[in-house]
From TrEMBL:
Membrane topology field: Multi-pass membrane protein
Transmembrane segments: 41-61, 68-86, 92-113, 120-138, 169-189, 220-244, 250-279, 291-312
Domain of life according to the entry: Bacteria
Segments for region (Disordered): 330-382
Single GO MF annotation: branched-chain amino acid transmembrane transporter activity
UniProt entry keywords in alphabetical sequence: Cell membrane, Membrane, Transmembrane, Transmembrane helix
Lineage: Bacteria, Bacillati, Actinomycetota, Actinomycetes, Kitasatosporales
Cell compartment(s), UniProt: Cell membrane
Pfam families: BPD_transp_2
InterPro entries listed in its UniProt record: ABC_transp_permease (IPR001851), LivM-like (IPR043428)
Species of provenance: Streptomyces spinoverrucosus
Protein's recorded name: Branched-chain amino acid ABC transporter permease
Coiled-coil stretches: none
GO cellular component entries: plasma membrane
Subcellular location, principal: membrane
Amino acid sequence: MSTIVATLGTDRSRRLRAALTVLLAAALAVGAPFYFAPFQVFQLTMVLLYAVALAGLNLLVGFGGQISLGHGAFFAAGAYTAAVMLDRYDIGHLATLPVAAAGCFLLGLGFGVPALRLRGLYLALVTLAFAVFLPPLLKRLEPVTGGSMGLTVDKLQPPAWSGLAEDQWMYFVVLAVTAVALLLARNLLRSRVGRALLAVRDNESAAEVMGVRLALHKTLAFAWSAMFAGVAGCLYTWVIGFVSPDSFSFVLSITLLAGLVVGGLASLYGPLLGAAFVMYVPSVSQDVSEAAPGVVFGLLIIAVMFVAPTGLAGLPGRVRAAVADRLPRTTAGLDRTPETESAPDTEPESRAASEPSATVTPADPAVVDAEPVGAPPRTEKE
């Protein structure tokens, strides 16, 4: 009974700490745009929308066990969907979000078919090919996409009743969408679909024996991942107000994958940390070396992977384990209770009292030489 009570107390305290952490994070997120400068608010907005894209990639790579180097293509598809609707059809900004999400979901379903036959490096090459040929295709479709010149659209303007600046209003809109997307990803992973994805990632044969439909869940993993990327691309169009094929090269796909790995695969907080890495590290690299920022960026990735092989999300656990290993181990003497230390050690005396006496007395020659009762008479030789 005491064990059950202790377990319930531990769960209650863990939930309380999680709730306090969420409230603190929400307070910091809400107060950030009123404290930072407009450009810094813009950077935080970009971190949030990158987190949405990485959350979808995490579903596919971290929890689904598949690899994709073409996530930037789904990002571009969502961005151009929103841009074309705003530029050609003069539709409201909010109406473009569900259309971009649904369109990229269907695109992910269609692209998930190769995932049924390919895996590993072969699947990575196919997804990379999709990211490579999409920018030239967008340039060819000039009547719709604007070609190499791209499309310029109006940014999302704050309503008069809000009293907020444009960057602050855009930040809060993206923050709300990001919160909904991360909550959806969390609930999806805790559902039957999420458990099936984990089973497929760990062992496909065992998952199939247990009744998991491999083809369905592999395709759905691509579809969900593409949908999140499309939502992030739509937010990108709202924030930037301009799209062009050169903004969505295959380097974007590789950068997103690197950000997810640095942030932490199969972690709910990994996409946020990876998004911050994707946003801020290139700027830091540019400040450190204007001649070769890519070299600094690569060295920083290597350093992070050396310090935290499981990503930044797993770094606190590694630090706690390292500190626990370095602490002096508790000796046996410290584990003894005060009653045990103060009480005299009477065990040898009690043992001696309970066991038969083994004291040896000096031997008497008369007794030793005596014959036992009933023994045969001795002869002269004896």
